[in-house]
Each structure stands twice: as C-alpha cells, then as structure tokens.
Amino acid sequence: MESNGITSKANGEKRAWKHSRGISRHKKLLDTRPPSIAIDAEGKLTGNAQLTGRMLTLKWVEILLLSGYLESGLGFEGANHNFLIDLEFITRGGKVPFILGLDANEVPEAWLKVAWGEKDFLAHMQADIVVARNSSITCTGAQNAEGGRNIDYFIVSYVLLGMLMDCWADFQVPFSPHFGLVLKLRADPTQIFTRALVQPEMPKAIAKYDSNMLEENSFQKTAKPANKVQHQKLQTAKKEELYLRQLNDGEKWQKIFEKTPHQELDFNVDHEVSQHVKKHFESMTGQNAEECLLSKNLSRWATAVQHFWFDKCGEDFSKVQNLMGKLPQIETKPVVKAKLGDLRQMVLPGGGDVCTRVWASMKVKTEALRKWMQKGAYRTAAAEDAILRLEQFMVGEGQLFEHVWKDVEPKLALRIKVEIVF
To answer: In this predicted structure, what is the pLDDT of residue 418?
Structure first.
C-alpha cells in the first residue's frame, strides 16, 4: 500500500509535499473525517500550512496519515516548534496511531536532541523514524561529499512498525531536488501482534484512593473557623478522625493478610519469563528457586496488598484473575484494536463524535448555500457540491448520514428537512 501527501492552505499560503504515489487506488479506505486542527468543515484547510492529513481505516483500525514540512535553517525552533505542538495535539500525544511523511530539513539524528518533558520528542510520541533502505540521501540540494542529505523520511507510531514491509526512494521524480519516498505496508493491521508482560489488575478507583478522595472527611467541607478556639477544636477533631481511620485500616490489613494463603511459586516450564527468573536466581545463589522463603513471603504480601486496595475501593477482589505476587508472564495480543460498537458513538481525534461532526458540517453548508443564493452564486462547483451533500443528507444516503438520523424523532426530522429545503 502506498500513500500520498495532501495539500494544505493557510493565510493564502499553499504547500504540497508528495512523499509517494498511488493513493487514488485506495480512496475507498479514506475516512473523510477532518483532522482536529482543520479550520473548515471539509477538513481541507489547516491553520498550520506545514501539517495536514487524513484518516485511513483498515479493518476498522484507524491510522492517521499526515504530511509535513519543517522550514530550513530553523532547527526545531519558531514555526517548526509550532509544528511539533500541532503534531502532538492532532495525535493526542501519540495515542492515535499515525504515519507522518516529512520533509524535515534535518537528519534523523537531530531528533534525539529535541527534549519534550523528561523524554525526547519521539519517545514521548511513541514513534520512530523510518528511512529509505536503498539510498543514504533523499535530497541532492546540499553540496557535500555524500551528494546530498537524508532529510526526507517517515515518522511512524511504534504500534504500526510491524506493518512495515519496505521503504525506498523513488529517483524518478522530476523538477525537484528531493526524491520520492514509497512506504509499503501490510494491509491488515489486526494481524500484527506483540508480546507484553501480563499486568496485575488494579481497582478502577485506585486513582481516587491515592488522592484520598474515597475517605469520609466532613472537615473538608467545613467553613473556615471564625476564631482560634474553633480552629483548635477543628484540628483536634481531625486528628482523632485520622487516628481512628488508621486503626480501622490496620485491623482490615491484619484480617486480609491472615486470610491470604501461602502459595508455591509456579515455575511453569512453558513460561519463558519464569524459566529465565529461575535460571538467574539459581545461578546467582546456588539455591533451589522453589524453596526461596523470602520470595514466597513477598508473594503473599503483594497479593494481600492488592486485596486491601480492592476492599478500600469497594470492589470485588474475588473476580481478580491476574494477581500481584505471581511470577511474570508473557501474553500475545494485537498491537492495535479495531473500533467496535455503534458508529454514532465513535469518538474522534480532537474531540466530538461522528454525529456532531456531520451536523456541524451540514450547518456550514446550509449557511454557505444561503449566502450563495442571495448573491446568485449558486452555479459554482462548491454550491453544486453543497446541494448534492445536503440532498444525500436529507434522504440518509450513505452509512454516516443514515446513522445521524437514527436518534432524531420523526417530527423533528421532518421539520429540519423542510427548513433545509425552504
């Protein structure tokens, strides 16, 4: 599969950066949903002329295809820093899987110096750089011994790296010092799996418990004391409450710990990680791993802690499958998940849902058509397209328009359609 750059326009400026060919063969896979930084209902214009994109849907897995350009000589400052901010925003900090075709005007190694919080920018975005395999340069503009620089490449989310089959430079690109780039992908992302450690289950309200939001504390809602005497009484009562709470927690912990049984460590021969743990322990200590009393006691304590947390959060510990204190295990799972459920409830990048975006788009088209009719400009291509879309919208033609009307009462739907027509 190949992808193509998309033109962006802002403040009268146009940029088009073509990083490969062939998107016309895959138009049926494109979701016309606009990216979150789009400034028009059609999603064709962005406030940043250096970044634009479209959503690609493969087997109900959404992939954000982006095309970008960084200005030469700025490094990662100025307008290029704004580019990074927009990229971080449109992908929700890398949570939305994306592929970015980029004329970076910087070599790949330069990205390691771009700090973003405690990490570098690519680590924060959970993405890596993919370069052409058949060429060490992608632009012939530089006058050096290598004949150019490698400043054109793709930035791809970690979860999509398993889809990559090849990336090569197309030298047959006229009228440009840049080579074209072709990225070949496997067309079914649901078939890409990864191995990950099994995570112990935590209570759903554990964050509230950590923030002391689950404990009863009437003093947090008490008005500010009027004088020092009331303040002293309030402090004394609060200390007594905290003391009693600690006693209750101590009693709860003791009961839970006493009920938690000792369990033998299961070094299953079919589990790769547990066998590595056993081998390392026995080579370091010269003792049998199954007889390590310290590990057994720590395992019991960890399970009791997990039980205690579930009780404090008011959740049922008996339904927990993955216990703390067990030997680590590996599970194989898909790297990306398909979107399931009602399409009307699908949350979009940048916020909102499918229905909200459709209604907003139809409102824009209706208002624009009203202005065009007043000016006699209803024979333009844009007006004809708006009329066509509104007609499709009113009859519920297509999957999106059909879903939009399902939640609207018949009388209200009729009223809306009449208002659109007249």
So the answer is: 79
Which of 129, 158, 192 terminates a domain? The answer is: 192
**Chain mean pLDDT for the chain:** 78
Neighbouring C-beta atoms of residue 37, cutoff 10 Å: 21
Of 175, 131, 163, the closest CA to residue 18 belongs to 175
Taking only the tens place, the pLDDT of each residue in 375-400 is 777 677 777 877 888 888 888 877 77
User: Is residue 300 located within the same domain as residue 392?
Assistant: no
Q: What percent of the chain has a predicted confidence (pLDDT) above 70?
A: 81
- Report the distance separating Cα 308 and Cα 314, nearest Å: 10
Residues 284-290 have a mean pLDDT of 87
Cβ contacts of 324 within 8 Å, gap of 6 or more? 200, 302, 303, 305, 306
Alpha helix ranges (H) inside 260-380:
272-285, 293-312, 354-375
Q: How far apart are CA 63 and CA 209, in angstroms?
A: 36
Q: Which of 309, 308, 304 is nearest to 324 (CA)?
A: 304
Look up tokens 């406030």; give the residue: 47
Mean pLDDT over residues 189-216, rounded?
A: 80
Contacts 24+ apart (CB under 8 A), 281-284: none
The whole-angstrom separation of Cα 43 and Cα 348 is: 13
CA–CA dist 279, 267 (Å, integer):
10
CA nearest neighbour of 97 among 29, 191, 160: 160
Structural domain tally of the chain?
A: 3
Alpha-carbon distance of 27 to 300, in angstroms, equals 57
Q: What percent of the chain has pLDDT over 90?
A: 20
CATH number of domain containing 46: 3.60.10.10
d(CA 356, CA 257): 51
Tokens 């659109």, located at residue: 420
How many whole angstroms separate alpha carbon 52 and alpha carbon 73? 21
Q: Are residues 265 and 139 in the same domain?
A: no
Q: Are 81 and 119 in contact (CB under 8 A)?
A: no
For residue 357, the enclosing domain spans 343-421
CB count within 10 Å of CB 153 equals: 25
